[in-house]
Amino acid sequence: MDTGLGSGAEMTLQEKLRADLKQAVKGGDYTCRSLLRLVLAGVKNAEIDKGAPVDDSGVIDVISREVKRHRESIAEFRKGNRPDLVAKEEAELAILLEYLPPQMSREEIAEAARKIMEQVGASGPGDKGKVMSQLMPQLKGRAEGREINDVVSELLAGS
How far is CA 101 from CA 10, 74, 139, in A? Predict the structure, then answer.
């Protein structure tokens, strides 16, 4: 196996997670350690479900699910007036976001949505399914599904 030493080869996302987990264990960072173990377990489960190793895209899916779960937990803990748990979830969320591609701005999402709307000939809210089915795979891991949905709804309502 090529270790990537000297060859300039990029580390896969899964390899980066494992390397960072080693560092967290050595450094005594319990939050990072437990979070990375959780993500790697999710990746392993995805591989078992698929019956084959997952690529970076599959790892991003796992991380994205964890990000969504953390955001939902933060909202619930805020409602329950639990600032201690909100702080813990926010710290973990910050770690997770480091492994995702840079998040797109609302304008970038709208621009991508307009291109898809043009390609599929979307003319109103009834075409939302056509647009979303094309757009979601393109923006996977780079934007939250809820925000993509909101932008597409606004654009189709205005067209």
Answer: 15, 22, 10
Using CA atoms, how far apart are residues 124 and 150, in angstroms rounded to an integer? 14
CA distance 157 to 159: 6
Question: For the whole model, what pTM was predicted?
Answer: 0.75
**DSSP code, position 143:** S
Cβ neighbours of 94 (radius 10 Å): 11
Report the candidate in 102, 43, 92, 33 with the shortest Cα–Cα distance to residue 67: 92
User: Based on the domain organization, do 91 and 131 belong to the same domain?
Assistant: no
pLDDT tens for 26-67 read: 999 999 999 999 999 999 999 999 999 999 889 998 998 999
How many whole angstroms separate alpha carbon 104 and alpha carbon 106? 7
User: For the segment 139-153, what is each residue's pLDDT rounded down to a tens digit?
Assistant: 887 888 889 999 999
Could you tell me the residue range of the domain that residue 36 belongs to?
A: 13-97
Backbone angles phi, psi at 124, to 5 degrees: -175, 180
Instruction: Judge if 72 and 115 occupy the same domain.
Output: no
Residues 68, 97 contacting (CB under 8 angstroms): no
In a domain, 41, yes or no: yes
